[in-house]
Amino acid sequence: MATQLETTGTLERRLAMAVAVADVDKEVADRLRKLSRTVKMAGFRPGKVPMKMIEQSYGPQVHAEVLGDAVSRAFSDAVAEHSLRVAGQPSIERREDAAEGELGFAATFEVYPDVVLGDVAALEVERSACEVGDAEVDRTIDILRKQRAGWETADRAAQDEDRMTLDFKGSVDGVPFEGGAASDFQFQIGQGRMLPDFEAGVRGAKAGESRSFDVKFPDEYGAAELAGKTAQFEVTVKKIEQQVLPAVDEEFAKQFGIADGSVEKMRADVRANLEREVAQRLRARTKSAVMDALPAIAAIELPKALVESEGQALLERAIADLQQRGIDTKNIPVPPDAFKEQAEKRVRLGLIVSEIVKAQGLQAKPDQIRKQIEEFAQSYENPAEVIRYYFSDRNRLAEVEALVVEQNVVDWTLANAKVTDQTLSFDDLMSAG
């Protein structure tokens, strides 16, 4: 049946369409007949329920389903007829001006914008680099040693990295407070577990020594009754222990899966793991720089439907994250436009990336997908099992494919934009959020 397309906005369209009443009635009758063969009603055997009773009980529901299907097909056909790219779900309402024997409907919706890419050569992108040297390997091995350290009593004043055992009592204006007292309490100095004033108060003390000192609680402290207040603590030190680090030897290497205990092999493994971590962080950092720059090459009118859908998805993810942390989200007020700006950025970037992929032929190739999965698998004990895990599920493969496509866009941008190389220190890279 004939359809009419009307442009009602930059991206908004209104499509008038109709479905034949006779076609709907015929489909309803067919479905009711099929239903009559299996429907059960009290007092009747299956297949013997009178058609009038079936029509009374199921007719409205079946009619609504058939009409919905017919309108959906009519809309899909009309979209294909007019070569439209629909963004989001249409809003469909009845029309009263349909011809005799037809049911008229009007669908209002948005279409995807035409994305005209500018000159990527005008973009400025910063690409990061970082080297892994012997010093980084040594420091990592020291961390591994500390994780496996033993403890021995130290007959000296307490210093950073020592473990202290102590009794303490705290009060505010002479009044003890909940959680302010403990016996045989252990903590390691310099790890940030205790408030700075508390650590400063016990640093330098010896076993058997008692001290009194003030501790200022931060204004944003979790316990409201203590926030911003100054407490007085009385502390008795019972024991001071120092770390005993294991030697970097054959036995130590074997703890990390080096069967023959070779320290050089262990160092090589540590270096390889660090280089893999550094490479991942560098890729993520450079990718972020590229994605931040790309929106400048195209001015786009964004479909409201896509922005609203993305904003809702961001909201749902935020709520799910809070709930996983044990936070009750029922009474947390969320402004309607809380995620609008972020959603607009994501939709705009998605449209631009999609156009670049199409224009430059940057779709993921099978060998790229396999290479990416093999790279993931390198950090696991059984790489072959990880590879099978990805290739056994289409959804997992689709996720990898999306990552590969994004990397293709990054590589293409770096090859064509103005790129400035920046060398980062290992510490700066690893501490970056």
From TrEMBL:
<dbReference type="GO" id="GO:0051301">
    <property type="term" value="P:cell division"/>
</dbReference>
<protein>
    <recommendedName>
        <fullName>Trigger factor</fullName>
        <ecNumber>5.2.1.8</ecNumber>
    </recommendedName>
</protein>
<dbReference type="InterPro" id="IPR036611">
    <property type="entry name" value="Trigger_fac_ribosome-bd_sf"/>
</dbReference>
<dbReference type="InterPro" id="IPR027304">
    <property type="entry name" value="Trigger_fact/SurA_dom_sf"/>
</dbReference>
<keyword id="KW-0413">Isomerase</keyword>
<dbReference type="GO" id="GO:0043022">
    <property type="term" value="F:ribosome binding"/>
</dbReference>
<keyword id="KW-0143">Chaperone</keyword>
<dbReference type="GO" id="GO:0003755">
    <property type="term" value="F:peptidyl-prolyl cis-trans isomerase activity"/>
</dbReference>
<dbReference type="Pfam" id="PF05698">
    <property type="entry name" value="Trigger_C"/>
</dbReference>
<dbReference type="InterPro" id="IPR005215">
    <property type="entry name" value="Trig_fac"/>
</dbReference>
<dbReference type="InterPro" id="IPR001179">
    <property type="entry name" value="PPIase_FKBP_dom"/>
</dbReference>
<dbReference type="InterPro" id="IPR008881">
    <property type="entry name" value="Trigger_fac_ribosome-bd_bac"/>
</dbReference>
<feature type="domain" description="PPIase FKBP-type">
    <location>
        <begin position="161"/>
        <end position="246"/>
    </location>
</feature>
<keyword id="KW-0131">Cell cycle</keyword>
<dbReference type="Pfam" id="PF05697">
    <property type="entry name" value="Trigger_N"/>
</dbReference>
<keyword id="KW-0132">Cell division</keyword>
<dbReference type="GO" id="GO:0044183">
    <property type="term" value="F:protein folding chaperone"/>
</dbReference>
<comment type="similarity">
    <text>Belongs to the FKBP-type PPIase family. Tig subfamily.</text>
</comment>
<dbReference type="GO" id="GO:0043335">
    <property type="term" value="P:protein unfolding"/>
</dbReference>
<dbReference type="InterPro" id="IPR008880">
    <property type="entry name" value="Trigger_fac_C"/>
</dbReference>
<dbReference type="InterPro" id="IPR037041">
    <property type="entry name" value="Trigger_fac_C_sf"/>
</dbReference>
<dbReference type="GO" id="GO:0051083">
    <property type="term" value="P:'de novo' cotranslational protein folding"/>
</dbReference>
<dbReference type="Pfam" id="PF00254">
    <property type="entry name" value="FKBP_C"/>
</dbReference>
<dbReference type="InterPro" id="IPR046357">
    <property type="entry name" value="PPIase_dom_sf"/>
</dbReference>
<keyword id="KW-0963">Cytoplasm</keyword>
<comment type="function">
    <text>Involved in protein export. Acts as a chaperone by maintaining the newly synthesized protein in an open conformation. Functions as a peptidyl-prolyl cis-trans isomerase.</text>
</comment>
<dbReference type="GO" id="GO:0005737">
    <property type="term" value="C:cytoplasm"/>
</dbReference>
<dbReference type="GO" id="GO:0015031">
    <property type="term" value="P:protein transport"/>
</dbReference>
<keyword id="KW-0697">Rotamase</keyword>
